[in-house]
Amino acid sequence: MKFQFSNRTVLTSIVILSAGILYFLFWLIYLREPAPGESSFEVSFLPAVNALLNSMSASCLILGYLAIRKGNRTRHIKLMLSALTFSSLFLISYLTYHAFHGDTSFQGEGWLRPLYFFILISHILLSAVVLPLVLTTVYFAATGNFNRHPKIARVTLPLWLYVSVSGVLVYLMLYQL
Fold it and tell me: Distances in Å between the alpha carbon of 46 and those of 11, 96, 110?
């Protein structure tokens, strides 16, 4: 027996799933009270891992775009699935870090402070938009809907790339400056 879902059902599910993930992240960072002894779990290495995963995702996005422009569909698929994998691993690592460490305050001063917050706020807002866009783009590709896939991918790619690169910039500004 084969189940078939309408595009509307799947897209509604993507929006609900994305909203749930974003709500959970907001709750985890801003609303949850840590349990006693919870912060003793060593996660200080995870921000560097997160930056590496974002870098790998951005690299795969660029290479995947170049592959499809050259007509190499197989390479494009592999690279875009790799970008999705790196971004998914990032999300898991990011959630783990914030579950055990909490939020990290920016200590920079002067002109760097407003620049940091501009990058951070745009990163956060666009990541909320990118999550359902990525899932929708992947859905259209996976179902062979090549009328809609490239149309939404033209919007998804630059936003996803910005979120990946700005995530690395946030890391560098928080931990390396």
Answer: 32, 8, 27
The yes-or-no verdict on residue 24 having pLDDT over 60 is: yes
pLDDT in tens, 2-11: 556 688 888 8
**Residues 171, 57, 6: CA angle, nearest 5 degrees:** 120
Residue of 133 and 3 predicted with greater confidence? 133
CB contact at 8 A, 133 and 157: no
| Domain spanning 45-176, CATH class | mainly alpha
Alpha-carbon span 4 to 113, nearest angstrom = 50
Q: Is the dihedral of CA 139, 142, 143, 145 positive or negative?
A: positive
Among all chains, which residue has been given the structure tokens 């909490």?
Answer: 102
CA trace torsion 127, 131, 136, 138 (10° rounding): 100
